[in-house]
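Private note to self, pasted from the team thread so I don't lose it. Backbone tokens:
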């Protein structure tokens, strides 16, 4: 079980430095004040990386412009926001043209659990780029304490009448429903690799 001792920004910065290129991550944003949380996360990540982090809002950006802006410059760290309104067709289209999104610098997708679920269902190639690199911001938009994590896991288990072990087995067998709460559950268990 993960201890959640390091803030997500620190862990992402550490992994980005290790990979150096083509590092893709998903950060599940908090439900409360997500815009403020994004600004704080950008500042924190920039401090850990010791270089600027760019926020790119995709909500009104055509795919061709997205590709162009991701490559100007191609080696900085980009936080990609505005993806929550994307449906299956948008994700599928991006998935087909994923080569245009490949870049040297880290790419961090700022998503709600619902948007992460749509990504996982509609963009398998992008999902494979992300691998197990899913992170969850706590309610305070930073470190989720062990107590908060245990409490949320208990809420999910009670609501769905499942144990964490059952959820892991279902995810491994690919029979786990693609509801956002199950993605959150796996991330809380430190099993983003099964999303």
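Design output:
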């Amino acid at each position: 079980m993960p201890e959640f001792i390091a803030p997500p920004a620190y862990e992402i910065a550490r992994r980005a430095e290790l990979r150096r290129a083509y590092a893709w991550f998903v950060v599940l944003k908090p439900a409360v004040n997500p815009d403020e949380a994004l600004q704080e996360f950008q500042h924190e990540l920039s401090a850990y990386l010791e270089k600027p982090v760019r926020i790119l809002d995709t909500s009104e950006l055509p795919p061709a412009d997205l590709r162009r802006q991701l490559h100007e410059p191609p080696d900085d760290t980009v936080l990609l926001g505005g993806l929550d309104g994307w449906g299956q067709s948008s994700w599928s289209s991006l998935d087909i043209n994923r080569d245009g999104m490949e870049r040297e610098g880290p790419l961090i997708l700022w998503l709600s659990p619902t948007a992460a679920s749509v990504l996982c269902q509609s963009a398998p190639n992008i999902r494979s780029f992300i691998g197990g690199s899913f992170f969850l911001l706590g309610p305070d938009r930073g470190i989720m304490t062990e107590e908060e994590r245990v409490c949320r896991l208990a809420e999910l288990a009670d609501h769905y009448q499942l144990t964490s072990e059952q959820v892991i087995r279902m995810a491994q067998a690919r029979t786990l429903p693609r509801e956002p709460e199950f993605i959150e559950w796996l991330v809380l268990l430190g099993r983003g690799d099964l999303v």
